[in-house]
Write a structure and sequence with these properties.
34% helix, alpha+beta, single chain
């Protein structure tokens, strides 16, 4: 069964196109190392919560939007091996700085338990 990696972050609105381009270019590299699929989403209806919410989780600031993305890998071993190679690939450094504050990024790997 596939392995899913999810990411949420806060991106300055002014960096929307830079983020899209960064995701496109890095995603092409990821696919070379086993990534099956990448979906990048720009927040549209992401309400603030009182106890928990995406905006709270990423410490959303004025002028930012929450992004949510997920990557599909064949399995966890492929994800782990892919990331090791990605981190060594000089093309990643050539992409420059991420167009958002990586300290407020949330990410994790997940094993699907239902797929319809």
């Amino acid at each position: 069964m596939a392995y899913v990696e999810g990411v949420a972050a806060a991106v300055p609105n002014a960096n929307k196109e830079a983020y899209r381009e960064f995701a496109l270019r890095s995603g092409e590299i990821f696919k070379e190392y086993g990534l099956l699929s990448l979906v990048e989403c720009w927040g549209d209806d992401v309400p603030a919560g009182q106890l928990t919410s995406f905006p709270m989780a990423v410490k959303l600031q004025e002028g930012e939007t929450v992004i949510f993305s997920w990557m599909i890998w064949p399995d966890k071993a492929s994800r782990d091996a892919g990331w090791a190679k990605i981190m060594e690939d000089p093309r990643m450094d050539a992409l420059g700085d991420m167009p958002f504050d990586g300290k407020r990024m949330i990410f994790g790997g997940f094993v699907p338990i239902v797929e319809l």
